[in-house]
Specification:
242 residues; alpha/beta; Rossmann fold; 8-stranded mixed beta sheet; 3-stranded antiparallel beta sheet; 6 helices; 13 strands; 29% helix; globular
Length: 242
C-alpha cells in the first residue's frame, strides 16, 4: 500500500490483540449471509490481501472445520503472520505470498477480502472484483468503500504526517456497477449492507487514521484523515445454473 512494515508494525500488533467493531460486525455479517444463501460451513476459505493475518486468524477460529488461507503480496507481512500462527497454534490456518490479481483460487469454496478492494492500486478499480469472480468461487464476501448509486470516486491519498510519507488509493466503488459486473460473471447479490459504527473512535493521528464524528441525528460516521469512509459489506454467490 505504499508504506513500510516498520511504519505499520504497531498497527498490525494491535489488530491481533484488539478486535475492532468493524471486524466483529463483518464476521456477524458473514454468518448471516452464508445462512441467507443456504450454504453450509465452507470447506475452505481464502482471505485476499490479508496483511499480517489478524483477521484471517479470526476466520480460522470462527470456522474451525474449514481450511483457511491468507494471501498477501508483502512477504514481510506473511512472515509475521506465520510467526504469529506458530506462536498461537492454528492447525486449520496457513499463509502464502501471492498477488490477489493473479493467484489461483480454484481450491477454495469461499473468498473474503476485508478492507482490501478499495486499496488495490490498479488502473481499473473493479479489476480485483472481476479477477475473483473470473475464478468462479462459490461465494465472495468483502468490505469496501461504496456508493449505492451511479457514481464512483478514484481517490489518491498522500500522508506526510510522519518521517516516512506514503500514498495509497481510497477508491469508492459503485454498487450499481458491482451488481452489473456480478451478473456478467454468473453471480448474484445475496446482501449488500452499509456499515455504520456504534462505538466512537477517537482521532489519534495528524494524518490518516480512522475516527468517528457525530451527525446531528446522533449517528456515528467514519472518517480517515479528511475523508468520509462510506463502508459497505458485500456477499455475492455464484448462480447454480452459471
Amino acid at each position: 500500500m505504499g508504506y513500510s512494515f516498520s511504519l505499520m508494525n504497531d498497527y498490525h500488533l494491535r489488530q491481533y490483540h484488539t478486535e475492532y467493531e468493524s471486524t466483529r460486525r463483518f464476521m456477524s455479517f458473514l454468518d448471516n449471509a452464508i445462512n441467507l444463501a443456504n450454504f453450509h460451513v465452507p470447506v475452505s476459505i481464502v482471505d485476499l490481501g490479508c496483511g499480517a493475518g489478524a483477521n484471517t486468524a479470526r476466520l480460522a477460529r470462527k470456522f474451525t472445520d474449514s481450511q483457511v488461507c491468507g494471501i498477501d503480496l508483502d512477504a514481510e507481512l506473511i512472515n509475521f503472520a506465520l510467526k504469529m500462527k506458530n506462536e498461537r497454534g492454528a492447525p486449520n490456518l496457513d499463509f502464502q505470498v501471492g498477488d490477489l490479481l493473479e493467484c489461483e483460487l480454484s481450491d477454495y469454496e469461499g473468498v473474503t477480502a476485508i478492507q482490501t478492494i478499495s486499496w488495490v492500486p490498479a488502473k481499473d478499480m473493479y479489476l480485483p472484483f472481476e479477477r475473483v469472480l473470473k475464478k468462479q468461487p462459490k461465494w465472495f464476501a468483502f468490505s469496501s468503500l461504496g456508493f449505492d448509486g451511479k457514481a464512483q470516486a478514484r481517490i489518491e491519498v498522500e500522508d506526510f504526517s510522519d518521517n516516512e510519507s506514503w500514498s495509497t488509493p481510497y477508491n469508492v466503488l459503485s454498487n450499481v456497477v458491482l451488481r452489473e459486473k456480478a451478473r456478467l460473471f454468473g453471480y448474484e447479490e445475496v446482501v449488500i449492507s452499509p456499515y455504520h459504527p456504534t462505538e466512537p473512535i477517537l482521532k489519534a493521528a495528524e494524518g490518516m487514521g480512522s475516527h468517528t464524528r457525530v451527525l446531528d441525528s446522533g449517528q456515528l460516521v467514519l472518517f480517515s484523515g479528511p475523508l468520509y469512509l462510506p463502508w459497505y459489506f458485500y456477499f455475492f454467490k455464484r448462480r447454480e445454473n452459471a
